[in-house]
Design a protein that fits this description.
rod-shaped; 2 helices; mainly alpha; 2 domains
C-alpha cells in the first residue's frame, strides 16, 4: 500500500474506534440513568424488530410511489392518445375543407375565365363587324 492509503486506513480505524467508544459511553450513561430512575434495567425494543419494521415501512412507501408513478404514466399516455386522435380528426377536417375550398375556387376561376373569354370573343366580333 502507498503512504496515502495507509494514512486513510489509519484514519478510518481511529474514527471507527472513536465512534464505538462514544456509543458505549452513551449506552452506559443511559443504562445508569434509567437504572437510577426505575431501579431496574429498562426493556429496550428488540433491534431486529425495529429494523424489520423500518424496512417494511420503507417497502410500503416505495410500493405506493411505484403505483403513483404508474398511474401518472397511464393517465399521461391516455391524454397523449386522446390529443393525437383529436389532432388526426382535425387534420382530416382541415384537409377536406381545403379540398372543397380549392374545388370551389377552381370552379369559380373557370367560370370567370369562360365569361372573360366570351366577352373577349364578343368584343372581337363587334370589332370585326365594325371594321366591315
Amino acid at each position: 500500500m502507498t503512504a496515502s492509503t495507509d494514512q486513510f486506513a489509519d484514519i478510518a480505524t481511529r474514527t471507527q474506534e472513536a465512534v464505538t467508544t462514544a456509543v458505549r459511553t452513551w449506552a452506559d450513561t443511559v443504562q445508569t440513568f434509567t437504572g437510577s430512575i426505575t431501579g431496574s434495567r429498562p426493556a429496550l425494543p428488540d433491534a431486529q424488530v425495529v429494523v424489520d419494521r423500518y424496512f417494511d415501512f420503507a417497502e410500503q412507501v416505495l410500493e405506493n410511489q411505484r403505483r403513483l408513478a404508474k398511474s401518472v404514466l397511464t393517465a399521461g399516455a391516455q391524454a397523449a392518445e386522446s390529443v393525437t386522435e383529436q389532432a388526426a380528426r382535425t387534420a382530416e377536417s382541415v384537409a377536406a375543407r381545403t379540398v372543397n375550398a380549392t374545388e370551389t375556387v377552381a370552379g369559380k376561376a373557370a367560370d370567370v375565365t369562360k365569361a372573360a373569354g366570351e366577352r373577349t370573343a364578343a368584343s372581337a366580333r363587334a370589332a370585326q363587324n365594325a371594321s366591315k
